[in-house]
UniProtKB/TrEMBL annotation:
It comes from the Bacteria. It comes from Meiothermus hypogaeus NBRC 106114. This is Lipoprotein.
Amino acid sequence: MGRIVNQMWGTKHWFYVFGMALALLVGCNRPTPQPSVQITFSPASLTLQQGETKEVSLTLERTNLPGLVVLDLESPPPTGVRATFEPNGTEGNTTTLQVQALGTAAVGDFTLRVRVSQGSFSQTADLPLRVEQANAPDLRISLNNLTPSIRQGQYEDLLVDVQRINVGGTVVLTLEQQNGSPLPSGLSATFSPSQPGSTVSILRLSVAPTATISTYPLRIRATLGTLERTLPFTLTVLAASSESDFQLSLSQYLSVKRGGSLSEPLTITRTNLAGPISLSLEQQNGSPLPSGLSATFAPEPADGDTADLILSTTPSLPLGNYLLRVRGEQGTVVRTALVLLNVYDEARLTASGAAWVAGQDNSGAWQVVAPTVGEYLLRVGNAGGRYGWAVVCSRTEGSPSTTTHQVRVYQLTLGEVRDLSLSCPPAATPGTFSNLSGQLAGLSGSYGQVAYGISADFVDPARDGSFPPTPAYPGYLLQGVRNGTAHLMAVRYLPPSTPGTLFQADRALFERSYTVSGNQNFNLNLTGPTSFALEGSYTATLTNPNPGAEGLSYLAYLTPTTQTLYLADSQQKAASLTYRAIPAAQRQANEFYVFNAREATFAGLNLRSRQVVQGLADPANLSAGFLNLPGASLTLLGNQFQASWSPGYTWLGSGTRLFSLQLAQLAVTPSTNLEWHLHLSQGWLGTAVSYAVPDLSQSCAATQTPCVPLPSNAPANGWQAVWSLQRGLELDWSLSAVQISLPLPNWLPLAQSSTPPAGINLDGFSFAAASDGGILNPSALSVQRLQKLGAPRLLPAWLSPR
């Protein structure tokens, strides 16, 4: 028995040992697990408009794939699409794919095949990509009842919603049969308004007593320029009823100026019904009228066939459209009639010398505005009080003559600016130009400066008269000064301090009201009896300059007729300087000091700049800091320029805030230049971080219906082609975030003024701006370019002399 057990144990043990050996043998020959990676995209698909850039997050789920992997596209992206990985190689599990669709990118549905590779291993995953046309304009219309039923001899009010997508303007509405034929006999329709600049219109569909009882396939047609959209619906005409009934009828699109009132007749059409009808006005949903709007009827109740609706508004009633309904009631019979009430206010503009003025009330529809008694009046009837002015100034100067068309666009709100007064420069440059030169005595080997009108010359001891073409030291030459009368002033500087270049004035002289009427020579003596010493010592510093930027700061003294007289001038990167002051006895009213500091950073064709200005009536120690840069860009989407800037932009303290987009194109046509200056108030923009430069080509005259420019293309009839930005030309641009201590109505005229206007108190004036800009379409650069990229044009000349 024991031997049998031992034999059995021996057999089991042998099988166990054999199994273990076999398992080891099989394990040794088992293949190594293959590497793999699963690629997940977030978002799972991507839609881009032409000119747009978006990012996709990639997550890698690895199996047996440690170490560095490389990411790329297995095949080239579609035409006009760029794709970059950041980083394009990683030992981790995440990376970012940035996809950019250029303005010329092909439109359609595509696939980006992302590849992850390591040595001979690679694996792919597909990312669906859709590229859409940039800013593709579209119209969408809807109706609150697509199957209305109306009895013979009655009508019904329907609501039409109009949605504009990437397009502004007035929409023309018509009603027709679905085959395009006119309405059949017995049917009629009115839209109120028939050309809505807003998003809603009331369609009154009337059925005559003789209309045929039937079903009618109809459609609403909406047109805006070349856009056309239709909405089909079905009308059922029912037989007339002999039951007691009535209907209400009045003008369905009413407007009233805020704070005013109106009276509107109401017609009551009765059918087998006599006696008084109670009348009331309520909101379209049946709720009471909003605060600030009240209504009465005379008589009320109405015994006859007519009554008057009297509407009254308070000055505090918000602007905009109010969808209301008149309610009539007698016993169990209740009938209503819809009314669209627009509560508006007015913006006023004085624009002397303008070639063309247009306005828009937040609808994107720019229409020529004709002057009324020297003023332009624009009705503003949207809830935000948002509106815009477009003013064109044209001037011709130089020899040979060059015409510059300057387009100024102001996007504002009534709460910020109600009345605006602007003036255009003379259409042609009056008078003649001359040279003013002479010797500047009393410099004692130091530097000097001479200023007259808007001209200035810096007298450098190292100047030898060869180039630039000015007299050798100590002579001065002001070339091309306009004939007339202005202040002639000079200043002497102390020897520059070290390190860096810093000048501080110690003596000056004035020749007030000096007249130039031809090439003249006039010597100035800074140690003569009319000169005087500057007094006191004051400091001006910057609290946060960028040491890597090109810095510039100065303390200037300005008069109403002379651009600037520097009292201190520093081109050090760390802007800190001292200055002496003009004696009080030598100063006149409306003459003041300006501290200006600017730093600029260039990168190729792009320029980023920050500027801060402080005005003060009397000399004082002061300091200033810069705004943050906005991080702006300009792109061409379709045929429309669009500026964008960083959404996280922060302002310093308080004050008037706006964005200024400035564009300049040379040689728009032979001997013609174009400048655009767009001022966008923060109230108008709200939280928006992009702005599409308006296309004014659809502008029309004030009396035109529909809005189409007249063929003559005269300023009074619409927008001219020579006033338009050309997409194929080089564009010098800058987008600035600006903060000013002055109210907007005071600042906007100052920004266009060539000299400091009288009567403006600039004591304590402050201005800060951060700008980003460059040259769009650099492929157009050529040796024929007439101007180099300069600092952003943030200030008028009299505040920004450098």
